[in-house]
Amino acid sequence: MAGPPMMMKFTKMHGLGNDFIVVAKEQALPDQVSILANRICDRNFGIGADGLVYLLPSDQADFSMRIFNADGSEPEQCGNAVRCVARYYFERISSEKRELTVETKAGIQRVWIEGDTEDRQVRVNMGPPILAGLAIPTRIDAERVVDHSVWVGTEGEEQQHFSFTGVSMGNPHAVIEVKNVEQFPVAKWGPLLENHPIFPRKANIEFISIRSEDELEMRVWERGVGETLACGTGACASLVASYIRGRTDRRVKVHLRGGELIIDWKETDGCVHMTGAATFVFDGVWLG
Ligand SMILES: N[C@@H](CCC[C@H](N)C(=O)O)C(=O)O
């Protein structure tokens, strides 16, 4: 661990409005990186972002990525951040190859840089979903957690019933189908579900409405962040849950508040591929 940076160069990027402060060319994480993430992601007193992302050296892949949520917690995975740092690496560090490998806490991922600068898309193989209850993790000892009932609310207050399907894409997700996701009070029920004791490491909560067998709408309450405009792993989890519940095909377009992602759960190897935009916003210097 290195000492805290006084001045730190960063690049602001986003994947469909899921925004990150990307820090590259450091050799190691600074001390107290969680406190830094919490301060720097603050939208009033910091730069403002959903997460702080470090692009670091790796001896197993082209580079490694560590991400910290806005509350300072470190998730295992982040689909939109992987796509952002892959684009960063390709355009700012080495454009030698369009197929890259990225080491994350959830394993090594393969990423493809597709299209021209104007219309650049980034595809990532997010690996196979984890469906076993205890592995997601949930407190349910079952091979799959499909349409499992939970009640949320506090004693004396309004109680609400939900049916969720559990999926891990390296990080834990609970997917809930609702009638009209656009009108759904995500900020009311999201935090109660995120912190429900059925999820020992909390969970990201996706609320979805199915448009057709190949299109769905999704809003997300992210663990450690709150409602965000998009979530890559959440979109993958939503497709997996919808397919195993017989509600969609294996390939869908996911409409998020910040844009669209194409999610494809390949029959050949059981891996979930995600394709979408990753966008540069600006470069800056954090004065700590
Ligand atoms: N926005 C992300 C997921 C970020 C991590 C998440 N908040 C967690 O704690 O698991 C994505 O694009 O996947």
UniProtKB/TrEMBL annotation:
The keyword Isomerase applies. The record marks 173, 222 as: Could be important to modulate the pK values of the two catalytic cysteine residues. Its main location: cytoplasm. GO terms for cellular component: cytosol. Transmembrane segments: none annotated. Pfam families: DAP_epimerase (PF01678). Homodimer. Catalyzes the stereoinversion of LL-2,6-diaminopimelate (L,L-DAP) to meso-diaminopimelate (meso-DAP), a precursor of L-lysine and an essential component of the bacterial peptidoglycan. This is Diaminopimelate epimerase. It comes from Marininema halotolerans. The lineage of its organism: Bacteria, Bacillati, Bacillota, Bacilli, Bacillales.
